[in-house]
Design a protein that fits this description.
Serine Threonine Protein Phosphatase 5, Tetratricopeptide repeat, TPR-like_helical_dom_sf, transferase, 54% helix, alpha/beta, Spore Coat Polysaccharide Biosynthesis Protein SpsA, Chain A, single chain, Glyco_trans_2-like, nine-stranded mixed beta sheet
């Protein structure tokens, strides 16, 4: 059935200074609606002009700090049998006309919940953006009895459900929302505005549970954990499922208590919530987070396995993207790392990548584990990351979030492939990783050619590296970076170590100039300059692997030695390793690892003991103690090496790889 033959839909919006978003919003809805009504509440930018150019009817409303009043005013202009409500920073995803036909011709339905996916900003811990999913009533019949209520966090589901005589159905439609990104929240000062309006609403309805929940949610977003818990706690056990947010109260209260350090209360709240909502994976993750905070990774792993068995949350839950799926699998891998079960951790990270091939933090952990193990374990982990690369290479353009824009899916896929190629370069195994890097950067233009230049440098082909970088420079894509890359090439050509101080520390490590990077750290410490911070996990891991390579190691195939400057073998630091800056725990642990890498076990033990004293969390103290024990064992192993007692120690303690893994996991928590 064509749209003209279906009951009509009126799009109703309220807007203010939405020039950056409104065009994409209107364009996403226009194929499905008969009219577009935009209620402007005082824009000073081009919002109205853009909306009018797209055929929208503009109505004006003087803002009175009341979202429901503004929305209801916009609804009063609707002339079609059905109403669709969107905000300007939202996009309606495409849907087949057959879907709309089923929804609009259902005589027994007064309204529908629609899946709302809100983008969240990337965090340092997660390295990529995520999203939270809710169900909101945005499609309903045009009836004067269905109106919004609440000056903020307004809703009309209650009115629609009352007319229907039961809960609303969930429509197979999706809205994507940008407004919870950190940059958008900061620009609009949403938290301050919302708390002000909620205070005004509470003065009229002090016991309204929805308002109390909204205040708790805003305080949680602002990082005011104790205040959030105080507002949310009275709601526990007082709400029924009909309110739609009872499960989220348990989830948010558990998070608030955990962040405030009230771990017992956080666990009790999560466990009570799971008694009622046993199919809510986010609650399992909340409980697992409490166990991790208690340094009980075994219990956390068991809970995460339950979450994984539950799978993705049902549409009526407010759920973070990946809960019950890749996010839970990654958390299970992190728990295994804290248990020092490296192969199990790698298997979980690989499983997470099968569900989300672009999950950067899973790539980093999997490659770091592969980098640090030896023997059969290294062979098994190599197969895991190689399979993940193949999956990424054969991935169809399947866009998520940015994919609404033309070509967005292809751009996102290219970005992910380039990033994985960068990570593989950091392993400094050009013979093994080179074929995969070449395939990942194929067709990526200048950025891909630049990475290819780094690969050729690591392979020792300086002529081809220069040709790649010159090709990119001619396209004016490198800017001032070319001069710095020239320094790398000249240093490699002269067979010099430590001559790349003119480039960034990251570039030094990528080029394999271990001596140059360590000299940079030492110089900074000697002149009182700003201390060199820790490099990336993979770069520091390969540095440890390289400065101590003469001490033995390698993998099952015998060709795992990372290449140094210009494709040459690793480097042995002649003196005491310099100290890297950072908090006391990190500085001592990093210094201990560098000392252990060159066999200076007494210094390593002193550093690990100091790190244990400086530990601020139980897991840090345990890691430092484990590193200290491993260092003693490694020192004993070296003493016994070659003697008739050399086989007395367990294999895990006859290699310093266990020590390196323990230290890296503590320095770079998953």
């Amino acid at each position: 059935m064509r749209r003209a033959e279906l009951p009509g839909v009126s799009l109703c919006m309220i807007v203010r200074n939405e020039a950056a978003f409104i065009e994409a919003c209107l364009m996403s809805a226009r194929p499905y609606v008969a009219e577009m009504i935009v209620c402007d509440t005082g824009s000073k930018d081009r919002t109205v002009e853009i909306a009018q150019s797209l055929g929208a009817q503009i109505v004006r409303w003087e803002w009175t700090d009341d979202f429901a009043a503004a929305r209801n005013y916009a609804l009063s202009f609707a002339s079609q049998p059905w109403i669709l409500v969107l905000d300007a920073d939202e996009r309606l995803e495409p849907a087949a006309m057959q879907v709309w036909e089923r929804l609009l011709l259902a005589d027994d339905q007064w309204g529908y919940y629609i899946r709302l996916i809100s983008r969240l900003a990337r965090t340092d811990a997660e390295q990529e953006e995520s999203a939270v999913t809710d169900a909101v009533c945005r499609l309903f019949r045009n009836d004067e009895r269905i109106r919004f209520a609440g000056i903020i966090h307004e809703e009309c589901a209650t009115a629609a459900a009352a007319l229907q005589g039961g809960p609303l159905a969930i429509a197979p439609l999706t809205i994507r929302h940008e407004g919870y990104r950190a940059d958008v929240m900061e620009e609009r000062r949403k938290v301050e505005r919302n708390l002000r309006l909620l205070s005004k609403a509470l003065a009229q309805r002090p016991n309204d549970p929805l308002l109390r929940y909204a205040v708790g949610t805003e305080l949680l977003s602002a990082g005011r954990w104790l205040e959030a818990a105080e507002w949310l706690h009275p709601l526990v056990g007082q709400l029924d499922d009909a309110c739609g947010f009872a499960s989220d109260v348990y989830l948010k209260l558990s998070h608030a208590c955990r962040m405030a350090g009230r771990l017992d209360e956080a666990a009790s709240v999560a466990e009570a919530g799971l008694q009622l909502y046993g199919d809510f994976p986010d609650l399992y993750e909340a409980l697992a987070a409490v166990h991790i905070a208690r340094d009980d990774a075994r219990s956390a792993l068991q809970v995460l396995q339950q979450a994984s068995a539950v799978g993705e949350a049902a549409p009526y839950y407010s759920s973070v993207e990946g809960a019950g799926g890749y996010r839970t699998l990654y958390a299970a891998g992190a728990a295994c790392e804290q248990l020092y079960e490296w192969q199990e951790a790698a298997a979980y990270y690989a499983a997470a990548l099968r569900q989300r091939p672009g999950l950067e933090r899973a790539w980093i952990r999997l490659l770091a584990l592969y980098q640090a193990v030896e023997g059969e374990a290294a062979y098994g982990m190599k197969e895991l990351w190689q399979a993940a690369v193949e999956c990424l290479l054969h991935l169809n353009v399947r866009v998520r979030r940015e994919e609404a824009a033309p070509g967005g899916g292809q751009r996102e896929l290219e970005r992910v492939r380039l990033r994985v190629a960068q990570l593989l370069l950091q392993l400094h195994e050009p013979d093994r990783c080179g074929p995969y890097i070449e395939r990942l950067v194929e067709g990526a233009g200048g950025p891909g050619v630049q990475l290819l230049g780094w690969l050729r440098l690591q392979q020792g082909d300086l002529v081809e590296a220069e040709r790649c970088w010159l090709a990119v420079e001619q396209q004016r894509l490198l800017g001032g970076e070319w001069a710095k890359l020239g320094v790398v090439l000249r240093c490699c050509a002269s067979d010099g170590q430590g001559g790349t101080l003119a480039v960034s520390g990251e570039a030094q490590l990528l080029a394999g100039d271990w001596a140059g990077w360590l000299e940079r750290v030492e110089r900074a410490a000697s002149v009182g300059a700003e201390e060199q911070s820790l490099p990336s996990m993979l770069q520091f891991g390969v540095l440890l692997h390289s400065v101590g390579w003469s001490r033995g190691g390698g993998d099952a195939e015998g060709d795992g030695s990372p290449t140094g400057l210009g494709g040459r073998a690793g480097y042995v630091w002649p003196g005491a390793p310099p100290r890297i800056g950072g908090p006391p725990f990190e500085a001592e642990l990093a210094a201990g690892l560098l000392a252990a890498a060159v066999g200076r076990w007494r210094e390593a033990c002193d550093c690990f003991a100091a790190a244990r004293s400086a530990a601020a969390q139980p897991a840090q103290g345990r890691a430092a103690a484990s590193a200290l024990a491993a260092a003693f064992a490694a020192r004993a192993s070296e003493t016994l090496a070659g003697s008739e007692h050399g086989s007395l120690l367990p294999q895990a303690l006859r290699s310093w790889n266990e020590l390196r893994l323990i230290g890296l996991t503590a320095l770079y928590p998953p």
